[in-house]
Amino acid sequence: MIASPNKTKRVKKTVATPINRSLRFTPYAMAKLLYLRDIGPTEVGGFGLSNANVLLLVEDIQLVEQVCSVVSVEFDDDSVADFFDQQVDSGRQPEQFARIWIQPHPAASPFPSVTDEETFERSFGGVDWAVMHIIAEEGNTCTRARFNVGPGTEWRLRSRVEFAHQFPAADHESWFIEYCDNVTVSDPFASDRALLETCDSDWWEHAPLATDRWRDNLSEAVS
């Protein structure tokens, strides 16, 4: 008899993948996000508040004072600083309130504009990780995670609603009040000569962009 050759057992190689490549929203957070998308004619910007144990699970969305148009959002730097202080005072870590930037778009395209990309780079380029999530009409989304540790990389993320955690009921009244208290709609085709005449032109030339100060505000809040 001829002995059969020994067979070499092949071990299947596995590639390490992230445990979770999904940005998840509680039903409460998703309901609020859709409400903010549909209540006005402009873009709106907010910060996602994450679960302490699952940082990619958004439990709420917090607005700050901002001036919005159909193509841009400009946060008020003092309001952002106050928001950071409030979150730190309530016991949250920066990873829970200053990493996920959420933008409802009033049009059909969920893709970030050049302004969105520049804002994301300025505001979140110095932290270890950050997520930009845009939701447009009909539920179209664009979600991207940026990791600034080591060589740096970016991932496209899925987004979905997570029903496994407890969540409160929707509250349109409080959401409407929050919107009215924080969002100023800018009409780029309208001019207010009286307002312009009261402005100091030198201030406009030298004033820093609000988003340039986010990282400084966060550092002061946690120090």
Description:
This protein has one domain (22-186, 209-222): Cytidine Deaminase, domain 2. The protein has helices at residues 27-39, 77-89, 94-97, 114-124, 172-182, 193-197, 201-206, 214-222; strands spanning 22-25, 46-50, 57-63, 66-68, 73-75, 100-104, 129-135, 141-147, 153-156, 158-161, 183-185. The chain is built from 8 helices and 11 strands. Mean pLDDT is 80; it is low at 1-5, 7-19 and 191-211. The strands form 2 sheets. Strands 9-8-7-6-2-3-1-10 form an 8-stranded mixed beta sheet.
For this structure, the CATH topology is: Cytidine Deaminase, domain 2
Low-confidence spans: 1-5, 7-19, 191-211
Q: Looking at the structure, what is the overall shape?
A: globular
Number of strands: 11
Number of domains: 1
In angstroms, what is the radius of gyration?
Answer: 22 Å
Distance between the termini: 80 Å
Structural class of the helix and strand makeup?
alpha/beta
